[in-house]
Design a protein that fits this description.
Length: 255
């Protein structure tokens, strides 16, 4: 018998929607970058310690040289995060990614396209998506085609699960556990408790909203603007709330 016929494959390779944190560099200062990221990790270690992040250089006036980028990557590592690639940019960014031996992550193209001629000093505030837990169950995603309605998920979303509604709203009729994520390109409606993470407007829709019946979230985000909760404010804990963007500020209020 041919040995190749009864040999076990060394691995399986699959692609899927993955939550990544994006570190948008606003000025080339490795020490300041490390300090800022360390502050974020200290504030929410369960979110950002060893988080997989993408380095976005698109809002700098000039693309840094290889040595400077290497220093920025080391600053991210020193802060306790794990850089996994560069965000989509120009052809120069692509060449830089190849030289650095890093993948180019095109997921952030729509949300992070640089404004023509805009200096870094007046760039919008960073839009960071949260990083995934180290180990996840298979992602439950349903691609949209044509004019479709909201995606429904009946029952609870367990810790380690990630539900993604592409090009549509997401309705969850159950609880979202700690360590679980629900993501939608449109709005998110949770008719149950939110103890995990909810991210609406995942492709940059700033008009998206999040509605929760029982608010106890780890994190909520809209179009990349996020709020992390170490402790839920007393007037919001366990309440029915809605989340929306007011400019670049994520607002949360009781319904």
């Amino acid at each position: 018998m041919n040995a190749s016929m009864d040999a076990t494959d060394a691995c399986d390779l699959r692609f899927g929607q993955v939550g990544l944190a994006c570190v948008r560099v606003r000025r080339v200062d490795a020490a300041a970058l490390c300090d800022e990221l360390e502050r974020r990790v200290r504030a929410a270690p369960q979110m950002f310690a060893r988080a997989a992040v993408v380095l976005d250089l698109s809002h700098l006036l000039d693309l840094p040289d290889d040595g400077t980028v290497d220093a920025l990557l080391e600053a991210v590592r020193s802060a306790g995060m794990l850089p996994v690639g560069l965000a989509y940019g120009t052809s120069e960014t692509e060449a830089l990614a190849k030289r650095m031996g890093l993948p180019l992550i095109a997921k952030f193209r729509a949300a992070y396209e640089p404004a023509t001629g805009a200096p870094a000093a007046v760039a919008p505030a960073p839009r960071s998506e949260p990083a995934p837990a180290p180990t996840r169950e298979p992602i439950l995603a349903a691609p949209a085609s044509g004019n479709v309605g909201a995606q429904h998920h009946a029952g609870s979303v367990r810790s380690g699960q990630q539900i993604y509604a592409r090009d549509r709203d997401l309705i969850v009729t159950g609880a979202v556990a700690n360590g679980a994520e629900v993501i939608a390109d449109g709005n998110i409606h949770i008719y149950g408790g939110l103890r995990g993470r909810a991210m609406a407007g995942a492709q940059g829709d700033e008009k998206a909203r999040i509605y929760v019946s029982d608010f106890r979230a780890e994190l909520v985000a809209i179009a990349g603007q996020y709020r992390v909760f170490e402790q839920i404010p007393g007037d919001l804990e366990g309440q029915s709330v809605q989340c929306w963007l007011d400019g670049e500020k994520l607002m949360i209020a009781r319904l």
